[in-house]
Amino acid sequence: MRDREAVWPFFLLFGVIGGALFLGAWTGFPVYNDAYFVGFVRELGPTSIGANHPDQPVYGFLLQSLAMAFGWRRGPYIAIGLSSWILLAWQAKRL
């Protein structure tokens, strides 16, 4: 029973930090590199991304796949970003 009592502050802290990251991502989208992606999708369409990255075909393919799947709505990209950071933190902890 004592272990459960020691864990709840961790979840509380995780919720506060995750909430702050989510709020910042939701209200700040698009900024910096995100605006580059959204500009391509809005102006030229999602199929133009791969053609404009001939020197980075894998990167262009990944961006084009995301654009065709989600468009330029912010929710899916915020979820991808947060899950990537959580995965990175888990991997760092495992090291």
Write up this protein.
The structure is a single chain. The chain is mostly helical and 95 residues long. It has one domain (24-94). 82% of the residues lie in helices and 0% in strands. It contains 5 helices and no strands. The longest helix is centred in the first third of the chain and has 27 residues, at 2-28.
Short description:
This protein is mostly helical and 95 residues long. Helices cover 82% and strands 0% of the residues.
Summarize the topology.
Blueprint lengths: L1 H27 L4 H12 L3 H4 L5 H14 L3 H21 L1
Helix pairs in contact: 1-5
Which parts are unreliable, with pLDDT below 50 for 5 consecutive residues or more? none
Number of domains: 1
Measured as a percent range, the helix fraction is over 70%
H/E element string? HHHHH
How far is the N terminus from the C terminus? 29 Å
The DSSP helix count reads 5
Over the alpha carbons, how many angstroms does the gyration radius reach?
A: 18 Å
Number of strands: 0
Shape: elongated
Portion in beta strands:
under 5%
| Helix and strand composition category | mainly alpha
Specify the biggest β-sheet: none
Mean model confidence by pLDDT:
82
Features:
single chain; 95 residues; mainly alpha; 5 helices; elongated
